[in-house]
Amino acid sequence: MNVRETAFAILKKIYIEKKLATEVYPSFLEKLEDERDKRLTLEIVYGVNRFKGRLEYVLSKFANKNRTEADIWLLMLTGVYQLLFLTRTPAYAVIHQTVEVAKKINPKVSGFVNAVLKSVSRSKNSISFPSKENLSDYIQYTLSFPLFLGMKWVADYGEEKALKIMKSLNLKKPVVFRCFKDVSPLKKDYIVHKTPYIEGSYHGNIPVFMIRAAECYIMNEASQLAPELLRNFKGRFALDAASSPGGKGFLLKSFGNFDEVVFNDVSVDRLEKILENSRELLLNVSAITMSDFTKPAFKENSVDAVILDAPCSGTGTISGHPEIKWIRTPQNLKSKTSVQKKMLKNAFDVVKKGGVVVYSVCSMEKEEGEAIVSDFVSSVENAKIFEPFEYSTENIRRSFSKFYKEGLGLRILPDKFLDGFFVAAIRKE
């Protein structure tokens, strides 16, 4: 398959199987030999996912979605994205190659695809998009978010903040990495910049394999916050309860404040990912267990601290996974709340008296963050949310205190660097 055909096939699989792009594209990219073809394929896949609403708006001016075969509509969206955003590729080349893919799907519609994309190409600079005076259209077609999700955030955060969240999640964030040793090997050949929130984090236009070779780990600063809240907490055992791929536990281990950090996850594949990452980072991981943390798997009152990065809807990571916007539904936004409640209870049971549970989710949904934690502490007498910077550094306090709401935790709002996150620290009194 060529680039356009491969991109179309990846998108189709994402939308049919409701999977993340990272779960789908590796097997397809293996069939492309040229690295430039691989990059262009991913550019189209991520671009269509990021701006699907805007692309639909443009395409609907020249074709009727209800009268167009679903596969052909999706294929034309890939063409519209290239015509609007990939200015280095001549329009005639985009149209020709998209039509060639259409011929393989249904030869009878190739002329239709050709005519529609030519019309888009001629008119693209004269198309205006809805303003926020028409809020529903602005959310769907200008900001490219499903209406149900945009309006939910308007209700949860207020209109001004919700629109800012959506704009931030449409940004391509720089690749942020945390170095466990010395960043100087990367500085010899690349320009490396410090990130604004956490000391020891950097960003730069550096190949991933070089980042790993330098014993650095790709990890958003919001994700780094959970272990950073335990940087100065001392104890014998810490548990990273849902650890894979291991980043939070790696950070916790690097601080050296615990005799042992236990890495736990639910499957062999997930544990193997932790071990693979630890080997690349030259970190010794000696305590690793496999258990379903929704069920009691550890002795009560047996560890000093637990990090629970619970499974969630992932809506705070839309910048890096824009397909989440289109594969989530109103129903499955809340589908993991029962799991989160069980896991938080088990984390609290495992921790000793005086110990701490740090609960986090990479979600913008308050049902998965604030509601889970507040409901738990209100029903458990000796559970108390406390000021989360007690065991962190002053740098962390300065960087993140603006996100703290007393009695609830830290609601991290996305920006140029940060993913959306929720983090809370709970003490067993």
Automatic annotation (TrEMBL):
<feature type="binding site">
    <location>
        <position position="292"/>
    </location>
    <ligand>
        <name>S-adenosyl-L-methionine</name>
    </ligand>
</feature>
<comment type="similarity">
    <text>Belongs to the class I-like SAM-binding methyltransferase superfamily. RsmB/NOP family.</text>
</comment>
<dbReference type="InterPro" id="IPR006027">
    <property type="entry name" value="NusB_RsmB_TIM44"/>
</dbReference>
<dbReference type="Pfam" id="PF01029">
    <property type="entry name" value="NusB"/>
</dbReference>
<keyword id="KW-0694">RNA-binding</keyword>
<dbReference type="GO" id="GO:0003723">
    <property type="term" value="F:RNA binding"/>
</dbReference>
<dbReference type="InterPro" id="IPR001678">
    <property type="entry name" value="MeTrfase_RsmB-F_NOP2_dom"/>
</dbReference>
<keyword id="KW-0808">Transferase</keyword>
<dbReference type="GO" id="GO:0006355">
    <property type="term" value="P:regulation of DNA-templated transcription"/>
</dbReference>
<dbReference type="InterPro" id="IPR029063">
    <property type="entry name" value="SAM-dependent_MTases_sf"/>
</dbReference>
<feature type="binding site">
    <location>
        <position position="265"/>
    </location>
    <ligand>
        <name>S-adenosyl-L-methionine</name>
    </ligand>
</feature>
<dbReference type="Pfam" id="PF01189">
    <property type="entry name" value="Methyltr_RsmB-F"/>
</dbReference>
<dbReference type="InterPro" id="IPR035926">
    <property type="entry name" value="NusB-like_sf"/>
</dbReference>
<dbReference type="GO" id="GO:0008173">
    <property type="term" value="F:RNA methyltransferase activity"/>
</dbReference>
<feature type="active site" description="Nucleophile">
    <location>
        <position position="362"/>
    </location>
</feature>
<dbReference type="InterPro" id="IPR023267">
    <property type="entry name" value="RCMT"/>
</dbReference>
<keyword id="KW-0949">S-adenosyl-L-methionine</keyword>
<keyword id="KW-0489">Methyltransferase</keyword>
<dbReference type="GO" id="GO:0001510">
    <property type="term" value="P:RNA methylation"/>
</dbReference>
<protein>
    <submittedName>
        <fullName>16S rRNA (Cytosine967-C5)-methyltransferase</fullName>
        <ecNumber>2.1.1.176</ecNumber>
    </submittedName>
</protein>
<dbReference type="InterPro" id="IPR049560">
    <property type="entry name" value="MeTrfase_RsmB-F_NOP2_cat"/>
</dbReference>
<feature type="domain" description="SAM-dependent MTase RsmB/NOP-type">
    <location>
        <begin position="137"/>
        <end position="429"/>
    </location>
</feature>
<feature type="binding site">
    <location>
        <position position="309"/>
    </location>
    <ligand>
        <name>S-adenosyl-L-methionine</name>
    </ligand>
</feature>
